[in-house]
Every structure is written in structure tokens, then in C-alpha cells.
């Protein structure tokens, strides 16, 4: 999570090997991405990484089953009907194999997109605001599905969201500001996430740094608006003898 423009999508794209970082390193399932040729990177992305977006990006003329089978077909494999049926069942869409996207609700379309991302058995499933285009009830269903994939199947999921309720379904929330790490929460609650976000989105500047320190005293955690404000806030806290 982080304010608009803080680098969430950029981080996700670097982590998924869609973009190359100018500094730092990315490893997927123990494989460092830096040394890989474009071809090997493409193969790793295809075989080890799943990606779902806010828009479902399904091909409207294909059935749910054909959409789900597409990544394997592009890899030159012909998936069995059972394989496709099983992955659709995993996301709660048993019996919908022959439906086209236009015949499915938004939540069901996102589940097809999830099944398509899962068919290659990826090491990590990335989601860039996967519930952003859904109403709150449908969004909650998709979040429950993601949570179930983690709890039931041991699937690793990394997602970007603007919604504190969605973030609170995660085990760990990482906050970004201006392209930098700005704190994290373990076992988050929606209230704790919202409070942290409110602090991160406070206006910048010297006065804001003092305001940010006040928020940090409330939550017991340092809150930063920029890297400079971070050290300013930390210094202020330190000089005042720590959080009151
Ligand atoms: N670590 C970084 N170093 C340099 N540039 C960065 C970094 N992170 C992000 N940027 C740049 O900041 C801009 C905004 O980043 P990005 O779109 O990833 O933000 P976002 O948090 O996903 O925003 P939104 O919530 O509006 O979608 C982009 O132009 C990106 O290239």
C-alpha cells in the first residue's frame, strides 16, 4: 500500500520480472532475475509467475475453459480437460467451463483470470488491485478466494490495494512512499492499516513532519511522508525523548 504514485505498480512489475530495477535484486523461487536473458526471463514469467490485474483481460470470444488453457497453449502444451476443470473448481467456478466472459459476473470473470494465472502452478501470484473494479461484496468474495488459496493450497500472493479492508486480509502489509519502503504491519487490522495510510498521505513539509510525528506517537510506530521527513520525524521524536 501507499499513496498514489508511491511506486506500488512499479515494485510489482519489478518483482514479477516485467520491468528491470536500476538497483537492487529480485529472486523468484530462488532464481535471481538479474542475470537472465530476455528469453529465459519470459519462460520464468510464463512458468513461475501468475499475474492478475484490475481489469480481467479475458478474451471475450473464448470460453472460460479456453481462457484458462491459454497460457499452457501458448507454451506449446495441450492441457487436459480435467486440468482446466480442476483449476476452475479451485476458484469456485465448477460447471462454468463453457461460459464466455460476457455471460459471467465481474467477480466470476476475475475468478477466471485467477484460474488462468494459477494453471501454470506459479511460485507467486501477483495482483495489481485485483478487486479495484469490483463492487464491495464481489470484491470481498474474490479476497476470500485469494485468502483460501493461501491457507488451503499454500499459494504465495502479493497484491497492491488501496483498500484497508483488502489489505487486512494479508499476513503482512508493506507501505511505500516515494518509491521507498515506509514501514510494515504484521497481522494487520483495517483500522491499523487506515491509520497508517492517513499518516502517509498527510501533506509534506516541515509542519507536516511534526504532524506525522504526532500520528506516530498515537500508533506507536514512526510514520514518514518523505525520506527527509522520515529522518526529521525520527530526530524530533528522539530529541523529545521518544514517543510519549
Ligand atoms: N523506486 C523507484 N525509483 C524510481 N522511480 C520510481 C520508483 N518507484 C516508482 N517510481 C516512478 O514513480 C511513478 C509512479 O509509480 P507507480 O505507478 O508504480 O505508483 P503507484 O503507487 O502504483 O501509483 P497508483 O496508486 O497511482 O497506481 C512511475 O513513473 C515510476 O516509474
Give the tags.
244 residues, two-stranded antiparallel sheet, globular, binds adenosine-5'-triphosphate, ATP binding, ABC_transporter-like_CS, ABC_transpr_LolD-like, disordered C terminus, alpha/beta, 2 domains, Rossmann fold, 7 strands, AAA+_ATPase
Write the layout of secondary structure elements.
Elements: H1 8-15, E1 27-28, E2 31-32, H2 38-48, E3 49-52, H3 64-74, H4 81-90, H5 106-118, E4 124-128, H6 136-153, E5 156-160, H7 164-167, E6 172-177, E7 180-186, H8 190-200, H9 206-219, H10 227-239
Parallel strand pairs: 3-4, 4-5
Antiparallel strand pairs: 1-2, 6-7
Helix pairs in contact: 3-4, 3-5, 4-5, 5-6, 8-9, 9-10
Adenosine-5'-triphosphate (ATP) binds near residues 7, 9 and 179.
Protein name: ABC transporter ATP-binding protein
Organism: Streptomyces roseoviridis
GO molecular function: ATP binding
Could you characterize the architecture of this molecule?
By secondary structure, this protein is of the alpha/beta class. It folds into 2 domains: 8-184, Rossmann fold (3-Layer(aba) Sandwich); 202-244, no CATH class. The chain contains 10 helices and 7 strands. It binds adenosine-5'-triphosphate. Residues 2, 4-10, 179 line the site of adenosine-5'-triphosphate (ATP). Residues 2, 4-10, 179 line the site of adenosine-5'-triphosphate.
